[in-house]
Amino acid sequence: MTTEISERSVLLVGPRPASGSLPADLQADRFxxxxxxxxxEVRGALRNSCPSAVIVDLDMPGAGGLDAVGMIxxxxxxxxxxxxxxxxxxxxxxxxxxxxxxxxxxxxEVVGTPFAYVELLxxxxxxxxxxxxxxxxxxxxxxxxxxxxxxxxxxxxxxxLNLSAKEMGLLTALARDPRRVVSKHELLRDVWGYVSPGRTxxxxxxxxxxxxxxxxxxxxxxxxxxxxxxxYRLLGDDA
Length: 239
Prior knowledge:
It is a single chain. This protein is α/β, with parallel strands linked by helices. The protein has two domains: about 10-135, Rossmann fold; about 165-235, Orthogonal Bundle (Arc Repressor Mutant, subunit A). It is built from eight helices and twelve strands. The strands form three sheets. A five-stranded parallel sheet has the order 2-1-3-4-5, with helices on both faces. Strands 6-7-8-9 form a four-stranded antiparallel sheet, with helices on one face. Strands 10-12-11 form a three-stranded antiparallel sheet. Helix 2 (about 40-50) packs parallel to helix 3 (about 65-75). The radius of gyration is 18 Å and the shape is globular.
């Protein structure tokens, strides 16, 4: 069972974000601070809390930082957290490929270290505002669809719709801007966390199953439009 501990909480991942004055500074700015030292602790923390954002030390030993970001974005059928939550990476590396790699794995932004706390705070608040601005009280409505992000629940005409974690992620990605065509590359990156997917039918197969479920639940209403050669959008031209 997931417990919401705060509307303004931050999960700090890795030894460096958890050290020094950062936790105390965030607490002084009325954030509840959670700590996790590695990807497995991240998994446990997210199963028991609903942070507003995550700050990840990308310079953790091995690929720990990138693995933590990827795990957040990947989610899973049994995982309760919102895989689209804001993720801010921190890194001492100035090498462009390191930053690009973190962004491709799913980080929303990367801040270089050492950083000024006021800058990190401003970027963190901007990411949270952006995420909150896409939802009204955690809920998005598109026609007969209602998506409750925090409860991870979708209803069609008020009736619950049973979706897998990836179907939920796909629907959420398309519902953020229901008339915009979202490319398969974007969907693979944001929903599945793929960096270099190559040729794959993953998006198509999930989109097909999701389309059938939505049609069955809505009495045949058309959702999930395949725009050939470009990607998918939630609503068609006639909606």
